[in-house]
Write a structure and sequence with these properties.
alpha/beta, six-stranded parallel beta sheet, 13 helices, disordered N terminus
C-alpha cells in the first residue's frame, strides 16, 4: 500500500530556507519589513516544497485572517432560494467576491443575517469570534442599518457598504441607480415614448428613491411630465401586479413602463396580457436586474444589467487596499450598469387618426 504523502507545513519551509517560523509568516503575510532577498529565499522554498499556506499559518503574525465576510439578508435570501425563480444576486456576489479574493490570497465567507433582528449585534459578535474577518461586505438593506454599521465601526476593520451613498462609517459603493434609470428612460424617449410610467421599489432601500430621481430627471430634461406616472411597489411580484394595474387602467395610461426589478417587470407583462395589450407594440417594458428568467420569456425583457459581480469585486479590492494602507475612502465608488436591449421595447404605436 502506498504511503500517504506527508503534508508540507510552515516548519518544513522554515527549515529548508534556514529561517525562523516568524520570517516565513511575514513573507506569507506580505509584510513590508522583509527584504526582497529574504522574500525570494523563502518563496523559493515554498515553490520547491509545494507549500500551500493555511489560514492558521497566515494568522501566526496575529495581524490578518485573510478572510472577508460577505453578509446578506437572511429572510430575503432564503425566500429567493426556496422560490427557485432564477434570482442570481447571491450567485453574482460569490462570482465577483470569490474570484477577486483568490487573486489576493484571501477567502470569501458568506453569511446570512436578519436585518430586523433586535439581537443583530449578538449574531454578528458570534460570527466575528468564529471567523475573525479582515473585512466585511454589506449589501442592502444591511448597508444602511445603523446597528450593523455601528457594530462594524467598532471592530477597527474596513467594511464596504454596497447600494448606499449616505454618510457614515465604511466604504460606500453604488451601481449608479440614478444613472441607470436615466439610461432606461432616455432609451424609451429615443424610441418616441412621451408617457413613461415608473414602478418604484421598496422604500426601505435608498437606491429605490435614486432610481425614481433618475427617471424624473430624464423626463424633465426631455420636457415631459411625470405627474401621475409613478406607482409604488416593494420589489415583490404581487406589488408589481397592483402597481402595473394602477398605471395601465388610469385615465392617461403610459405607453411604456420601467419597473425597478425583474419581479415587478414580469408582473407588468402579466397585467399587459390580461388587459389585451401587446408588448412591445402597445406597451414597452424595461426592467432592472437582468436575472436569467427574463431572457427566456416572450418577449424577452430589455433590462438594466446590475453589475453585482463587478461591484462586489471592487468592494474586495477597496477593503484590501484599506486594510494595507489604513485609509478608508469616503466618496462613493460608482460602478456603472449597462442597458441590455431586447424584444420588450419598441417605438409606440401610432394611432390611425394621429
Amino acid at each position: 500500500m502506498a504511503r500517504r504523502r506527508q503534508a508540507v507545513t510552515i516548519k518544513h519551509v522554515a527549515a529548508d530556507a534556514g529561517v525562523s517560523l516568524q520570517t516565513v509568516s511575514r513573507v506569507i503575510n506580505k509584510e513590508p519589513n522583509v527584504s526582497s532577498k529574504m522574500m525570494e529565499r523563502v518563496q523559493a522554498s515554498i515553490d520547491k516544497l509545494g507549500y500551500v499556506p493555511s489560514i492558521a499559518a497566515q494568522r501566526m503574525s496575529g495581524s490578518r485572517s485573510y478572510l472577508i465576510l460577505a453578509l446578506n439578508d437572511r429572510e430575503r435570501t432564503i425566500s429567493d432560494w426556496r422560490a427557485r425563480q432564477g434570482t442570481d444576486w447571491v450567485d453574482q456576489m460569490l462570482l465577483g467576491g470569490m474570484l477577486k479574493c483568490a487573486e489576493h490570497g484571501y477567502r470569501l465567507i458568506f453569511e446570512l443575517v436578519d436585518t430586523h433582528n433586535d439581537h443583530v449585534e449578538r449574531e454578528l459578535s458570534a460570527a466575528f469570534a468564529a471567523l475573525q474577518p479582515d473585512g466585511v461586505i454589506l449589501t442592502p438593506p444591511h448597508s444602511e442599518n445603523p446597528l450593523i454599521t455601528g457594530f462594524l465601526a467598532k471592530q477597527n476593520i474596513p467594511f464596504a457598504r454596497i447600494g448606499t451613498r449616505s454618510a457614515g462609517p465604511g466604504i460606500p459603493l453604488t451601481m449608479d441607480d440614478a444613472g441607470s434609470a436615466r439610461k432606461a428612460t432616455e432609451h424609451l424617449i429615443d424610441l418616441g415614448h412621451a408617457c413613461i410610467g415608473f414602478i418604484a421599489g421598496s422604500q426601505e432601500y435608498s437606491l429605490s428613491q435614486r432610481r425614481v430621481d433618475g427617471w424624473k430627471d430624464a423626463m424633465q430634461a426631455a420636457g415631459l411630465q411625470s405627474d401621475g406616472l409613478l406607482a409604488q411597489g416593494d420589489f415583490s411580484f404581487e406589488s408589481g401586479i397592483d402597481a402595473a394595474r394602477s398605471l395601465l387602467t388610469s385615465e392617461n395610461p403610459p405607453s411604456a413602463i420601467i419597473a425597478s426589478n425583474d419581479q415587478m417587470a414580469l408582473a407588468t407583462l402579466d397585467i399587459a396580457q390580461e388587459l389585451g395589450l401587446a408588448v412591445p407594440n402597445d406597451l414597452s417594458i424595461v426592467s432592472f436586474d437582468n436575472t436569467p428568467k427574463i431572457r427566456f420569456i416572450e418577449p424577452s425583457l430589455t433590462a438594466v444589467d446590475q453589475p453585482i459581480a463587478e461591484t462586489v469585486s471592487r468592494a474586495v479590492e477597496l477593503i484590501i487596499e484599506a486594510q494595507r494602507s489604513g485609509e478608508t475612502p469616503t466618496q462613493p465608488t460608482v460602478v456603472s450598469a449597462k442597458l441590455i436591449q431586447r424584444g420588450s421595447t419598441a417605438s409606440p404605436r401610432v394611432n390611425a387618426g394621429g
